Amino acid sequence: MTTTSKARIPVTLLTGFLGSGKTTLLNQLLQSDWAHGEPVALLINEFGSVGLDQQLIGETGFPMALLAGGCVCCAMQNTLLPTLKNLWMERNSGKFKPYQRIIIETTGLADPTSILATFVQAKWAAERHYIDGVITTVDAVFGMHQLNEHFEAVQQVTRADKLLITKADLVDSANLKILQQRLQALNPLAIIQTVQHGQIEPDQLFNLRKTITSLVSAFNPPALKLLNIDYKLPILYLNDKASIKTDKRIQSFIVQFDQPVDLERIKLGLSVVMGFCDQHLLRMKAILHTVQYANPVVLHAVQHLLFPEQVLEHWSKADQTSRVVFITADREERAMEGVLQEFRAVIERGA
User: Fold this and answer.
1) Is the pLDDT of residue 334 over 80?
2) Do 92 and 171 fall within a single domain?
3) For 42-71, what is each residue's pLDDT tens digit?
4) CATH code for the domain of 295
5) Which tens digit of pLDDT belongs to each residue from 94-115?
6) Which of 38, 55, 71, 309 is 20 to 30 A removed from 326 (C-alpha atoms)?
């Protein structure tokens, strides 16, 4: 029932607003000992026709392709799949050492949804690759301003499996803490970590969507409680569902199930929510105790894209409650409450 990823190439998506340190991080990674042990292919998306980031990264010895054409939108979708196919043929021809991972660095203006769509909707890509994680860099100095002024920055944050705060050494601890709190409010599903000069252990960047350690905090309801700072409203608990209001446009909701759920009913219920939200669904993540599997099942969705389920090796603790978290933008709370009640009803009809 589930799609195995053993024979497929993991894809790490590196995103973040303009000047947030993506290229510095990538440079440090490619110069580390890790890069020599695990060959990678690099795909770099640039806003213009000249690849500045490609020049900044310099000589790597790895296969590299420039995806020009602006933001990750129609032009990007038209170039990504042919580029993946070309790389695959060259990999199999022996032109270079077979890469074991792909890293895609997006332009700082990009909403990464279209890249994610390629690996879900394009059969050729989905059969040979899987999304291993989305990493978003956030500038500690300008991050708050960018989140205030550019919704693209908010979208990048809410899509992330991991948020890396860069240039943390250039701000004081009080401002850093406020930024961390805001990021957690925007995306309670993400792990947040600070980095300096792009230096981070490679094993902290990969396997983000299937390792149990990356899920421990994401589905712990107390982790969703907000601190009393001026740009957030207090958390609102509605029975076993929690709703968070933050940044005015963004809301997060949790729906919990104490008994094992039917995976197909969950997917049917998710189709109702995704149809209602469409592009307003910034992120969905679920960890499920299902009747089909003894081990936890994880689901991810962005907008209308539902990724194949992943079955993890074990539960991290005795609590096997199923939890589904939705992060939405510009959806009226009462309307969301109604559609989530319908979501629950669809699942419970199959119980």
Assistant:
1) yes
2) yes
3) 888 754 333 434 444 445 555 667 665 433
4) 3.30.1220.10
5) 777 788 899 998 878 777 888 8
6) 71
What are the structure tokens assigned to 272, written together? 């109702």
Residues with Cβ within 8 Å of residue 343, at least 6 apart in sequence:
255, 269, 270, 272, 273, 324
Mean pLDDT of 144-170: 91
Query: Which 3-state string (H, E, C) describes 40-97?
Result: EEEEEECCCCCCHHHHHHCCCCCCEEEECCCCCCHHHHHHHHHHHHHHHHHHHHCCCC
Q: Where are the beta strands (DSSP E) in the chain?
A: 9-16, 40-45, 64-67, 101-105, 129-139, 162-166, 191-194, 236-238, 241-246, 250-257, 281-288, 297-302, 305-306, 310-311, 322-329
Alpha carbon distance 344, 266 (integer Å) = 9
Are 203 and 236 members of one domain?
no
